[in-house]
Fold these 4 entries.
Entry 1:
Amino acid sequence: MLVAVDDHPDLLRDVERELRNRYAADYRICCLSSADDALATLDRLAAAGDEVALVLAGEELDGRPGTALLAQVPRTFPQAERVLLVAWGRVGDPASGDAIFEAISRGRMDHYVVRPGGPPDEYFHQAVTSFLLRWAESGHRTPHAVHVVGESWSGRAYELRAVLERCALPHRFLLADSAEGRALLGGARLRFPLMVMPNGHVLEDPSDIDIARASGTAVAPDRDEYDLVVVGGGPAGLSASVYGASEGLRTLMIDSGGIGGQATTSSSIRNYLGFPRGVSGGELARRAYEQAWVFGTRFALMQQVTSLAREPDGVVVSLATGGVVVAGAVVLATGASYRRLDVPSLEALRGSGVVYGAAASEAPLVADEDVYVVGGANSAGQAVLHLARYARRATLVVRGTSLEAGMSHYLVQQIRATPNVAVRTGTEVVGGGGDCRLDHLVLRSRTTGEEETVAAAALFLMIGAQPHTEWLPPTVERDPDGFVLTGADLSARGLDALGRPPLALETSLAGVLAVGDVRHGSVKRVASAVGEGSIAIRLVHRLLAA
């Protein structure tokens, strides 16, 4: 259901016209003229078990800010998208901008949209459709979803969900003996776990390569030649692929997982240029993948690069599958992953309540439970806010003494304003367990050493950064933590190996550049990674010309 509330009859009529004309075939439309009526209606809908996807509210209702109504929506419909209707003349007004930012930061609303003008207002519909897509992907009507069906939460079924998460593919998990699982299988006797693709094709206990073939992203290179090979499919790698292919370079992207890298764990990136209403990491990755694909980039996903070597005809890239590619230039964009917690009792429950990364698809599975997120950076802040829309209580566990040290100001504000989010600074997870699935954690104060056992249905770990560089040859110089040295950061030994002054992002192996989180000294932000990916292509042109 879509709910719109405005106490101005003419303005409400405009909104109702646009909603009914465009969405009435798929959603029920409910338009109300007061905040009190809206709250009473939401209570009735919740009691009846109905779903509300979107609530639109005027800037002022009954003499009060419309955000006062939107702030109360999560009481009955925590996953509903809450949107403020803003007059066209307010856009660009400093006071209005400050008020919207403050309301979003304090968790009173999710988005804003400019009121509809003359019919049909496609700008209005573009925004509303994006809100409905966000709601759908939160576990309601996920479009083009892959269904994973398993006999248990853990094991290979969990690994498949992790693969799909890394690929930024919308998906749902169903237990084989659940009502939905049985309905999907229709009595067929198959080998679990299963993947049911959006076109109905069923993969029984698929390997990663099977998944890549089914999605059309597997190649079997036999010393194929490319101008550019990009190793890594995160924001930096996708950027390099888009710019490289768009500028006429024969481009291949290789990744051991899928696309998006750690960005796929971000449920809402609000400070990325050009997305005033925010964008999820998965959505950003999917858009970039389609851009690269249309420009001509070829993909080898679910394939591991095992070595690089400089030969007379170029940089030779070898794959674990036995394939070989020869590149004029290589861009390393392998990124970094979250560090392990090194608590054996919790590692044993990986996939059964213990998750590395935010795993947005897991959020609907922890409804009305107590969950914990470990980490102090933006990705952890975004994760705890996303989980709070489902969980009874979401707790952020931070080793440091404050959130401000590693997190953007707008996220800190929103976390502190969200009623069911708790923050425990100066704390670490030292134990936990459960019978087949996580049910408790042991937390320790780093100040006093005191330990406390708490009930927990899920633990999301987003700590530290470990670069994916262990496979690189010794000729690629790295710092003590494994991050790749480039340009002016190369040592005398690295410069000797290169044999000439390096380009800005070039490694100690000629013709090989490094960008994004894998590079020593990089700024751990999506926008920075995208920028480095684009800069790398200008350097690739210089390398190829030489």
Entry 2:
Amino acid sequence: MTVNPYETDLDRNPANYQPLTPLTHLARAASVYPDHIAVIHGSLRMTYRTFYARSRQLASALANRGIDKGDTVSVMLSNTPAMLEAHHGVPMTGAVLHSMNTRLDAAIIAFQLDHADVKILIVDREFSGVVKEALDIASVDPLVIDYDDPEFGENTPFAKGERIGTEDYEAFISQGDPDYDWHMPGDEWDSISLNYTSGTTGNPKGVVYHHRGAALMGYANVVASGMGRHPVYLWTLPMFHCNGWCFPWTLSVVAGTHVCLRWVRAGAMYDAIAEHGITHLCGAPIVMATLLNAPQEEKRPFSQTVSFNTAAAPPPESVLAQMAEAGFEVVHLYGLTETYGPAVVNEWHREWDELDQQRRIAMKARQGVRYTALEDLSVRDPQTMEPVPPDGETIGEVMFRGNIVMKGYLKNPDASAEAFAGGWFHSGDLGVMHPDGYIQLKDRSKDIIISGGENISSIEVEDALYKHPAVQAAAVVAQPDDKWGETPCAFVELKPGMEASADEMIQHCRGLLAHFKCPRYVVFQDVPKTSTGKIQKFVLREQVKNAQ
């Protein structure tokens, strides 16, 4: 048998192999740029030296309370410095960070606490009321620590709740060692965080991330966002959402500055952009609408171009034009909780700028190509697992494969097996593959409307509605119909001060779509959204069903 010299006496050892982890991003930034401002929160300015030391203090304090590998530490926090410290201090102990959606009700919070077997819970006082109610329901009895945000003043839109913990956050971490010798993961496959899906049907599923994926997302986010050295990032995206698309770990790669924003309000965003020189931010389309529709007195001039990463439906051309005029460059992303947030980017080619408007719009409507940290992206027939033809027309299911796909669902092997059937992660999103390798979503599998045997993409109808100048938000769902089986029903939220009629909306769509695709019914109302700005179609489907 021939001996392969490249596999002989060339073993892994501590000198040539270390597990990937995003925790080393912070350690490096603190070493190279110790005096650079890492975090801004109101009057607070925290350097990288202090950020790293406080994260180690938190880790040390947690370890002193017995927190170790395999334990879960939950946080119910806004976009504050404590949330950034938790993203580093919790995994420094080997434990798993569970960051909860701050708009959840008590029953779902209790379910998550029990399902994750939470040992310690850090709670911002804004949310102490609902968390107290959840703890009364839950079976677990974690150590509860109150976080009292110093920037949460009296003149705020929300009330500060009572203290429900046995300790205060600052007092707790003061017990820790700022020079704590934190743990590198024994294996980069070790779990780093737990994020629950929205749970629109039944209980939510717990999505588990590993250190390797989180580390790779740091590099990939820098590339996708076009970040140079020392970017200034505004926290408009909730850090509880897919761990803030992994940006709490990403910024340390390039020694960036986190500008915390407790509440997403137009005036506060413009103030931060103008005063701190914001270069990047992320958010759902609702954040764009908030910026564009702000009263003139709340807007502030700024000289820099701000990169705005957005996910969900592609922004209409009119919105992109308004954003560009306002000083923002929009980067369109796509992903899921199960893919660490964004895993696909509409990577723009300069020559596309020279296309006519219709072709340019078509290019911008596409979700794009895989992130640099994702190994494969495909559109396949979910039954045969064969790729669909790259013709831009044949619909299949969008599937992912690579190092930024979740480990699986916590304590749910059946759901994990179903999601990974055939060696690919099944997104549940339907789309097409274009000849140049760019994918474009057509719908969620459950959102396709079947009318008279024809498939209608709700996204296509929504895109048409968004082209009407009065439309701020739109969602289309199936309306049961005795003759056609289903027909499109449109829910439309108008821009402030604008008016339109149902007939006007239908005629507008008929100028852009085949008539059978156009909505038969139009309902004008505020469109329900999640805390991250995603439209809650399940609410609208129930509304349609109950109206029968």
Entry 3:
Amino acid sequence: MNNSLQSENFLKLISKHLPDMLWAKDLEGNYLYANDSICRSLLMATPNEVTGKNDVYFAKRERSKHPENEQWHTFGELCANSDLIVLEEMKPMIFEEYGNIKGELVYLEVHKAPLHDETGKLIGTIGSGRDITEQIKLEKKAEKLAYYDQLTSLPNRQKILLDISKKSPTACAIFNIDEFKEINDFFGTNSGDKILQEIANWFLKLDFTTYRIDGDEFAILFYDDYPVEILKHNIENILSLFEEELFHIEEEHIHIRFSVGIAKQKHNLLTKADIAVHYAKENKEKIAIYEEKANIEQTYKKNIALATSIREALLDNRIVCYYQPIMDLETKEIKKYETLVRMVDKNDQLILPLDFLSIAKKTKLYSHLTKEIIHQACNTFKDRNESFSVNLSIDDIKDLTTLQEIIQTIIKTKTSNKVIFEILESEGIENYDEITNFITQVKALGAKIAIDDFGTGYSNFEHILKLHVDYIKIDGSLIKNIDKNDRHKIIVETIVEFSKKIGAKTIAEFVVDEAVFNMVQKIGVDFSQGYYTGKPTKIL
């Protein structure tokens, strides 16, 4: 046996048993050679049957075996002509074809090259293929985890960012569910998840690709260059349709409402739509459109900067407490103080709470501020005889971690019999169970309860009766002009009379001058607080 024949047989032996598919075809696409792997995996034939036949032949043969399955495809039927494209160099290609004996989708990495005879004449193509189905499945699974929301199966925030960068949409609308936190709190997170799935299914009925970009936010991209007025009109139509929907939680039927932000920008599209939807929620608007001239983004950046400043101030011990005296109108002595928070900036300038507390609440820094204020106030008064009050929000009371730290701090500093917790009458005081549980716990330790800002907004005498408060702080808007406004005087007299009957003490806020001071004293208010009786100061 000569060396040439030996080499040829050796190569055939190797190719026959290789796991990779190997083949050679003539210029008309007929097989000159096919190894066992391609015959077994794709062509469903023996090597002897293959020579002289093309992919279409085997495709039709396999199709005839499965006439009932309209989706049946084979590698050969869909790719027969691809081998006629002669490549100048080896290049990988991926095919997604139905090609195996079960009619399953298989993925092949295919390499092809021109086939020449001994004289250099082009006579066909040679190719190799490798089954990379498992690799592609893993990649697709990873892609689904990275780019799709697991609860609703909608594309997620990462996917919308990718699509914006690659597809260049002209506009974006973000739909934020109004008061979704209340739905979760009232019905439970499982019911909340069910609502999200129902909303996702509703969006899928639309002709838009919808994304779930946050817990309670969905988004749509637009690719037609519509004017802003048309976009807004289209969104209004979507909202009108949506408002007709009823969602079901057990036996209850609930309506869901959205706030929507629209941006039509070339740069930072999603960010600007985010800014618009936040603007809509803050200003109680159904739809807000991002406009550069409205300086919304500057406000957004300012808020972010302020949130950063609050966080840094907490870390640098630049959150400080001032204390405003509260005078006993019977003895004219200062027996109580209200704790008021201030932030010191990096230039040692004082920033009043009006300028930063609302941002703290929105960024979830408020609980950290509350803990810091409680810590400072309790340590300031632990060795003093006066009482002191601290403002608490409903969110503080509902936060078990904050509540636990408050109780631990007043016990540790032995100030539980000196502290008065002020709760805003206008801030969700109807959450009786949570507030009653809190009041029961702290009163058992000796603490007192005050209702702040009473007399305006949602004032309700029933609240006071149910909560068994010790002090009623009359809102400053009723007090500051009481010497000139008879209607305010009548309201304050009614509050004072009611308080005496239930055994609660009254505190007048915003006592700004002698005339107001004399009037609240004459009416029978128990305590006076305001610039006339003392400005907020540090207590060392």
Entry 4:
Amino acid sequence: MISRRKLISASIAAVAAPVLLTTIRRSASASTTATLPVQLANNTSSATVYAYVLGLDLNQGNSWAFLEADGSTLYHPPSPSAPGAALGADCAIALNAPGSPAKTIYVPHLASGRIYFSIGSKLTFLVNPGPGIAMPSVSNPTDPNIATAYSFCEFTYDTTQLYANISYVDFASVPISFNLQTPQGAQTVNGLPAGGLETVASALRAQAATDGSDWAKLIVTNSSGATLRVLSPNTAITANPALFSGYLDSYIDQVWTKYQSTDLVIDTQASWGTTTGRVSNGVLSFPGVGSFAKPSTAAVFNCSSAPFTTGNDEMGNLSARLAAALNRTTLLADANQPDGENPSAFYAQARTNHYARIVHQTSTDHLGYAFPYDDVHPAGVDFEGRVQSASPTSLTISVGAAQGGSTTTSASASATPTSGTGTGTGAFGTIQAESYSGQSGTQTETCSDTNGGQDVGWIANGDWLSYSGIDFGSTGATQFQARVASGAAAGVSGLVQVRLNSPTGTVLGSFSLASTGGWQTWQTVPATITRTTGVQTVYLTFSSGQPADFVNINWFTFKAS
């Protein structure tokens, strides 16, 4: 199957000029007018936040539709006689003030949809003949929204399911997070933490200083010099084709040289199975399927220009997997894609898609599309930051910080306390994993790590550990560190997640883990978490797409910065 993200965004990809959207025709349409309640929570520091909901109306011939300002009435823009017409209805949904209850809206069946959030001022959407919709563009300096802070997420809601994802494919800006409620439980994607945009910008500046390339030029500031957004390399190259010229050439040359004498085996993860290719005369050929000329850096970053333009579905699947491997620079280490990849080895080359690396590292749970084929992955793991259900009951979308998080940081947060201020166990000391107050599915064992003792092992998908009375004090913690080991088999990996109050509570932060080389081969792994204060019951939960054990834990701790 071709990348879902690619299909969803095909009609709304960003270009240098405002995007012209034309109606997509389908052979069948939905037969019901059911709506999904969606709560829009304002976690920013601004009392002026607007949301815009739009998509293809599956009940009206897939025509473009907006929700009006009341959050429930659909507006279908008519086709104007000339380009650049204004919307004929107020479609700016005003969110409630920070700290107030979320604003509830009702979303009908819409496909290829987006929900935009703007801070401080409204957005301008224009209508062109068709009708087509000119979306806000971050790569067009004359766009009327160019000085506004805004972000968007993507969704499709039809008679079969809800699918929604966080996207950084075009740019990163105002944090957005999801909490989807279903009869089977909650699904969360926490997105960038409070202050995450500046973290991304700082890391890009550091990378530019390291390799002398154009990473700092992705940063867009407002009139006061604060970071407004960070462009993806593809979006930045759209506006300035000179950026990153030749940046990946050396790596791509090494890949093409390797596969002159080595088979590249790509699992299409579809009915075509695996396909084997070799490079000959400068072309990577998959006999009976198709071939790829050597790509440019710009083609790798955008995943859609030659040679990644394809004429059939099997080549589309090969394109997605080849483009993903080139962005993650894993082809020199792994000749079997994508199942031979170890996520911990992504972006390990000195020259790689550092924007994708930094966005994933900064995001609270490391999820969210950072390039168009970021949903290509080994079996059992995902990176795209999606929620998906055939039976959704409600969706909460928070703007400004991860759900439950803070939009401010304490002035004293740089000082790392050694204990809390209440009566519980200090969050900033070493908490032994075996000191849990409750658990499910785990066992303890003798530990050979430094200082010995015991660790908790036999941990697999769905298991959890709880620790009551963990005191974060008034300053709070924004970082989590755990001492972990894994002897999991190839292809087996999972997430270690931090939650509060229950095994299904909101994920404050997480990190992914594959084999470290053995069940007693220990590593200290950090993760960013939503700022947490006071005395709490902390849950460590474990999620994996495979039933096998994937992690041992010796100890963990929290940090203020």
